Amino acid sequence: MRLIYILIITGILAVAMLWLGKLGVVRKKLAALVACASLLCGGGLLLLAVLPGNSFYGETITSGQVASGKKLVALTFDDGPYPPYTQKLLTVLEEKQVQATFFVVGNNTKQFSEVVCLTASKGHEIALHAGEHKDFLKLSKGELVENISAGKKLLEELTGKPVKYMRPPHGFRDWAVMEAASDFGLKVVNWRVIPRDWTNPGAQVIADRVCKDVAPGAIVLLHDGDAPAQTASREQTIEATSIIIDELLSQGYEFVTVGELLNQ
Ligand SMILES: [Zn+2]
């Protein structure tokens, strides 16, 4: 079932009840009550679809269990590959000897496949963001399946490794998104820490936000790309990543990929 259909139905029901109340066909109080309940139901379902940290529509991972007592953290980067920022980020990660997970976009990959190959060759984990960076909630079931299928196939052909994780654009998902992900053997991974680096608030601000909110097992969302526009600078994220790594290493954190975090 697509959430969008439920939203349309609840919206129509609310308007219809208000009209029937106004025309005197239904008592006004009852009409208002049903309209409110309908809108609340639709709004609640929408909220659950866009909030990243709940599993209402299916298991959505935002952090790993750290039973060992280790202070593990997984840095993740969305929307790439995006030259020259992805490559600059790879340099920082290599200098710091840190592995991360890149949720890449299929369309960007077609354009800059060598950057994805480089990322994989450095030992980072390649995961799927989308074949094309679109709001999955607005796609038909067929478009959704095609989007995920094309992106996953492209990445697997390029890297020679199975893609196991997907982060839908904006983290939005409903039953159909979760079902499609499951059909392709993909686990849906959102985030625990989101410093809103895409707004470019300053490298230190980004780093401070991450360090304030981080906890053992956390998955941190950052951006090496700017999908779908691909126009914004990611210099702040690159600088922030360097600060975050230094600060969290000094606090005893160990950086792992999402796969390592979930399979320890
Ligand atoms: Zn994105």
Structural class designation: alpha/beta
What low-confidence regions span 5 or more consecutive residues with pLDDT below 50? none
Biggest pleated-sheet summary: 5 strands, parallel
Bound molecules: zinc ion
Q: What is the overall silhouette?
A: elongated
What is the radius of gyration computed over CA atoms, rounded to a whole number of angstroms?
Answer: 21 Å
Percent of residues in β-strands: 5-15%
Please count the beta strands (DSSP E, at least 2 residues each). Answer: 8
CATH class division of the largest domain: Alpha Beta
Describe the structure.
- The chain is α/β, with parallel strands linked by helices.
- The protein folds into two domains: 3-50; 60-262, Glycoside hydrolase/deacetylase (TIM Barrel, Alpha-Beta Barrel).
- The chain is 50% helix and 12% strand.
- Strands 2, 3, 4, 7 and 8 form a five-stranded parallel beta sheet that branches.
- Helix 3 (85-96) links the parallel strand 2 and strand 3.
- Helix 3 runs parallel beside helix 9.
- The longest helix is centred in the N-terminal third of the chain and has 23 residues, at 28-50.
- The protein starts with a helix and ends with a helix.
- It binds zinc ion (ZN).
- Zinc ion binds next to loops.
